[in-house]
Design goal:
This is NmrA family protein. With 172 residues, the protein is of the alpha/beta class. It has a single domain, classed as NAD(P)-binding Rossmann-like Domain (Rossmann fold), CATH 3.40.50.
């Protein structure tokens, strides 16, 4: 589809965000685990991700839609740092004052956890566990300066995101 865009439109942009910081603060399974028992479960091993804040995605989209000329390219959006899930747990502990750990699971353990605990259909659970495995293999270990270049301000760090919206208790 992306190859067709230049032939279909004079001006275009495709936003390609990395994984969302909100996965650790909203209603996502990781945020629920943090609130429930202080545990982030993944099969990401030591893999790192340039997590991006949804507000940075929105700011970049506004820029792409309102500038005089669209960038006519794919815009890979990340935060300013690539973090492993151990890093996420440590930062969450520091910001919230509540112990948070990253429990390293195998692909099979993650798939089964998603199926049995999160009640996700087996095929979808296998796909999600496979995405974790891809992270473990380095597929998401990158950062870009796209947010800074397009919006004129630095992308939000994970720590800054948490300080704004940390998942402190099960009542949130």
């Amino acid at each position: 589809m992306h190859q067709c865009l230049p032939d279909l439109f004079e001006q275009w942009a495709v936003l390609r965000p990395s994984w969302f910081m909100q996965n650790f603060t909203g209603t996502h399974m990781h945020a629920a685990g943090i609130r429930a028992d202080g545990t982030i479960r993944s099969a990401t091993a030591g893999g790192r991700v340039g997590f991006v804040d949804a507000d940075d995605i929105a700011a970049t989209a506004v820029h792409a839609l309102t500038v005089g000329h669209a960038p006519n390219t794919d815009l890979v959006l990340t935060g300013p740092e690539a973090l492993g899930y151990d890093d996420i747990a440590a930062i969450t502990t520091e910001v919230t004052g509540r112990p948070v750990v990253h429990r390293h699971l195998s692909y099979e353990e993650m798939r089964d956890h998603l199926t049995l605990t999160a009640l996700i259909p087996p095929e979808f659970a296998a796909m999600l566990a496979g995405l974790d495995r891809a992270i473990a293999e380095g597929a998401e270990d990158r950062v870009t300066d796209t947010v800074q270049r397009l919006t004129g301000r630095p992308a939000r760090t994970f720590r800054a995101h948490l300080e704004r919206s940390a998942p402190v208790s099960s009542g949130q």
